[in-house]
Amino acid sequence: MADESYFVVRGRVEPGDQRGRELGFPTANIALRDQRGELGDGVWAGWVERPDGTRVAAAVSVGRRPTYYGADGYRLVEAFLLDFAGDLYGESLTVWLGRHLREQKAYGSAEELIEALARDVETTRGWVAEHPAATLPSLSAPPPDGEVLRVG
Ligand SMILES: Cc1cc2nc3c(=O)[nH]c(=O)nc-3n(C[C@H](O)[C@H](O)[C@H](O)COP(=O)(O)O)c2cc1C
């Protein structure tokens, strides 16, 4: 819808720690060039666009993985693609962040983090149902790798 605004981030998928697979939520990791910027840390519902133009719903984390790295980690974007199985390494993805769901949190255990991720995915399903991929505003130009654009 035209009255929705989005943050858009673009970048190449980099190898992560592989921990996401163990948790049951493998993520596509994208480096953020701008470590401060107007896009704050948090968890978002959004869409990921692949180089072939297909769009996949995603629950997206922006932050430093405080459960594992305290406040010292570097900031990155991590997208968990819903109902997707496949290898994204090396692909340049465009990530649309549509709704801010919650802040980043340092969880006491992997189990608590997994429960939170499951809730994020359910909330994301509701959001994407109301905001289909076809309603995303078009980009005049994609942002440079690792940089954040505000659209809509
Ligand atoms: C939707 C979503 C929400 C997340 N929320 C948090 C969070 O609140 N706290 C946190 O420490 N990590 C959070 N993460 C990041 C996970 O810690 C991270 O994906 C996991 O450690 C796997 O890292 P890896 O991809 O480098 O293997 C989140 C990830 C996703 C996809």
From TrEMBL:
GO terms for biological process, alphabetical: FMN biosynthetic process; riboflavin biosynthetic process
EC nos: 2.7.1.26
Keywords: ATP-binding, Flavoprotein, FMN, Kinase, Nucleotide-binding, Nucleotidyltransferase, Transferase
Name the UniProt record assigns to this protein: riboflavin kinase
PANTHER family named in the record: RIBOFLAVIN KINASE (PTHR22749:SF6), RIBOFLAVIN KINASE/FMN ADENYLYLTRANSFERASE (PTHR22749)
GO molecular function: ATP binding; nucleotidyltransferase activity; riboflavin kinase activity
Pfam families membership: Flavokinase
Riboflavin kinase domain span: 6-129
Keyword Transferase: yes
Catalytic activity: riboflavin + ATP = FMN + ADP + H(+)
Keyword Nucleotidyltransferase: yes
Organism for this UniProt entry: Amycolatopsis jiangsuensis
